[in-house]
Every structure is written in structure tokens, then in C-alpha cells.
TrEMBL record:
Residues 4-49 form the F-box domain. This is S-locus F-box-like protein c. Transmembrane segments: none annotated. It comes from Petunia integrifolia subsp. inflata. CDD domains: F-box_AtFBW1-like (cd22157). SUPFAM superfamilies: F-box domain. The gene is SLFLc.
């Protein structure tokens, strides 16, 4: 007796109970067995049940992006989809994916991964923006923002964000940029901040009016989506702050970093999620510190989100030869890029064990984001909307 015939003999609620515990790969195969299963598996209710179950489990995956030089003036971005077994040995979930849309004539040092948001992740090299569901292997390339700048001015993209507005039930992409007067021989200025927002449900860009935000302090591992807000680092009166943009209200706010961090000699910072808390990683700047491998790494967690007084120093890590942190996997594996810039390795926060991954890339161009499986579909409004594609 086939699996479908066996399942058909069960009550519908039992079938749903069984199905939403299955991995996405199996569900995508099962939805082709009948119209009833196709409708069920792709229904909003089932997608939410499956997402909630996946969120409650500890099964986490990594989307890892790295850059290679193909020719003297051509760079290629490659995505790897990784999972870890019970022995913490990593394996590829899918074959590596060449991201041709992000392949360009410059090195994607400013490339970012933002998310996950209901299983969707935004990839960007600051010019091209892609929305991707790594579980279903569906993606869409967003149309470019129509907002440029007048002749004689320069528009600099400072940050990209992505999140979900639960009030209007829509995904949004936010683009922060600065417009400068750009004469050929003079100092550019003054700065005029701009905020563009793309609403996926209506396939349209819009520009917020009269919005101010402080200068973005760009760092790897710094654009974080958490608690329906996107987070960056910023400079305010020579101090480093966490800048937040609320996806629902479309309002900026700031949070202070731990006070001790400001006394470290030439520190850099990263953002991550640890034990479901916003987490700050402070580490030595490999470009400025005389002996970066002699400096300690500190991990802080914010126990009460939004309360700067609730920062707690969780871990102090011995000096490591790193270029930057990338993410925290399974609440105990800190993923790091080596100071040579070409190796991904992990530091176990529980055992202090170091493990090297057989994954390599160009200096400063490694990015990683942690995600859980999801059936979430990428919205597409009509025939003129960007085409959702399969990889």
C-alpha cells in the first residue's frame, strides 16, 4: 500500500499533524501526489503550522556566501547550504549555487545577508537585491530602486534591511543611502540621508520624506533583523550606537552598546542571536591593532530587548586570528572568518573546540546567516511583478 493510500485512511487532523513534522524537501515531493495534498501543503494555515514547528526545534541550517576572483576584473559569488549532524560534522544540504545576479566587476566586500524572516532571506551587494527561500530553493530579483540623485551629486548606499510588517501583512525591503554634493576636486558634502522602501505585496518602491538617521558604521555581521526591526551600527557624536529601524512604524531609534566596549582599544563589533537574545560581539580590528591575535573577544547578550542597561557579558574568548565573526549556530558554535580571509572555522562556546570548514573565499567577503526550514512563498502580485525563479 502506498504512503498516500495509507494516509488517506487517517483523519485529516492526524494527516496534518504528521505532515507538518516532515522536512520541506519531503513535503515538496508529496505535494505532487494529489490535488488535495498540493492544496493542503501550500495553504497559509499549513505553512504557518510547519513554520511554528520548525521554529520550536533546534534544527538549524547555514546559508553561506563567499566570493571568488574569476578574472582580474570579474568576481563571482557562490552560496553553500550547510547542515550539521549530531557529531557537529557539517555537510552540504544542496549543491553550491552560483549567484550570477551578484557577479560583478568589483569585490562584494559590502555584500550582506539579512534575515531570516519567516524563512525568507535577503541577499544584496548594495546594488542588486534578491529575496530567497533556501528551503524551497525559490528566489526573486527585485527591480532596482527608481530613486537616484541630481546631476553633480553622488548617492552612496549605506545599508539594506528586510523584514515583515505584521500589521499590513507584507514584507518590506529598506534601503538607507546618503546623497552628497560630488564635485570633482572638492570635499563632498553636506550629507542628505535618504530612505527607500520596497513593498513586496504591491511590487513598488517609495521614498520616505523628511527622515533623518545618523551615519552608518559599516561592519561585517552588522545588518540584523530581530523583533520586527532591522539593526545596524552607527556613529553618533563619535560614539558607536546600534541603530534600529522598526519595520511596522518605519521609525528609527538607537540603543547603546555595553559601556565596557567603548574602553577597548580599537574594537570592532558584530551582531548575532544567542539564546533568542540580541547579541553583540566585540573583537579587535585586524587592520588597526598592532597585535590583533593577542586581543580578547567578548560576547554580550541583551537580556531585555531595548534596555541598554540589560547587557550582560556572556563569554570571554581567548585571542583568535580572525577577520570577523559571521554568526552563532545552534547557540554554541561561533562561526568566524580567519584573519587570512580565506577560511571559515567555528569556535565551540561550550568546549572551546576549534573546527575548520572546507570552505574558502576572498578576504572580507564571507557572509553567513542561520535559518530554519520554511515553506513560506515569495509574494508575487501580477504579471508585471518580478518573476519568482527556481535554482
Amino acid at each position: 500500500m502506498t504512503t498516500r493510500r495509507m494516509m488517506n485512511k487517517l483523519p485529516e487532523d492526524v494527516v496534518i499533524y504528521i505532515l507538518f513534522r516532515l522536512p520541506v524537501k519531503s513535503l515538496l515531493r508529496f505535494k505532487c501526489t494529489s490535488k488535495a495534498w498540493y492544496t493542503l501543503i501550500l495553504s497559509d494555515t499549513f505553512v504557518k503550522l510547519h513554520h511554528n514547528h520548525a521554529t520550536a526545534t533546534k534544527e538549524e541550517f547555514i546559508l553561506f556566501i563567499r566570493t571568488f576572483r574569476e578574472e582580474p576584473d570579474l568576481w563571482k559569488n557562490v552560496a553553500s547550504f550547510i547542515y550539521c549532524d549530531d557529531n557537529n560534522d557539517h555537510n552540504n544540504l544542496f549543491p553550491d549555487l552560483d549567484l550570477s545576479h551578484l557577479t560583478s566587476s568589483y569585490c562584494s566586500i559590502f555584500g550582506q545577508l539579512i534575515g531570516p524572516c519567516h524563512g525568507l532571506i535577503a541577499l544584496s551587494d548594495s546594488i542588486i537585491i534578491i529575496i530567497l527561500n533556501p528551503s524551497t530553493r525559490k528566489y526573486v530579483v527585485l527591480p532596482p530602486s527608481p530613486f537616484g540623485c541630481p546631476k553633480g551629486y553622488h548617492r552612496s548606499i549605506e545599508g539594506i534591511g528586510f523584514g515583515f510588517d505584521s500589521i499590513v501583512n507584507d514584507y518590506k525591503v529598506v534601503r538607507l543611502s546618503d546623497v552628497y554634493w560630488d564635485p570633482p576636486t572638492d570635499y563632498p558634502g553636506p550629507r542628505e540621508p535618504k530612505v527607500d522602501i520596497y513593498d513586496l505585496s504591491i511590487d513598488s518602491w517609495r521614498e520616505l520624506s523628511e527622515v533623518e538617521f545618523p551615519s552608518i558604521y559599516y561592519l561585517p555581521c552588522s545588518e540584523m533583523y530581530y523583533k520586527e526591526a532591522v539593526h545596524w551600527f552607527s556613529h553618533i557624536d563619535m560614539d558607536v550606537m546600534i541603530l534600529c529601524f522598526d519595520i511596522i512604524t518605519e521609525i528609527f531609534r538607537t540603543m547603546k552598546i555595553p559601556g565596557d566596549c567603548t574602553f577597548l582599544e580599537i574594537p570592532r563589533y558584530g551582531l548575532a542571536i544567542l539564546n533568542e537574545c540580541l547579541t553583540l560581539i566585540s573583537y579587535p580590528d585586524p587592520m588597526c591593532s598592532d597585535e590583533p591575535i593577542e586581543e580578547l573577544i567578548y560576547i554580550w547578550i541583551m537580556k531585555e530587548y531595548g534596555e541598554s542597561e540589560s547587557w550582560i557579558k556572556k563569554y570571554t574568548i581567548k585571542p583568535l586570528p580572525i577577520e570577523s565573526p559571521l554568526a552563532i549556530w545552534k547557540d554554541h558554535l561561533l562561526l568566524l572568518q580567519s584573519i587570512s580571509g580565506i577560511i571559515l572555522f567555528s569556535w565551540d562556546l561550550n568546549s572551546n573546540e576549534v573546527k575548520e570548514f572546507e570552505l574558502h573565499g576572498h578576504l572580507e567577503c564571507m557572509r553567513a546567516v542561520i535559518y530554519k526550514e520554511s515553506l513560506t512563498t515569495i509574494p508575487r502580485v501580477g504579471e508585471h511583478s518580478p518573476q519568482v525563479q527556481q535554482f
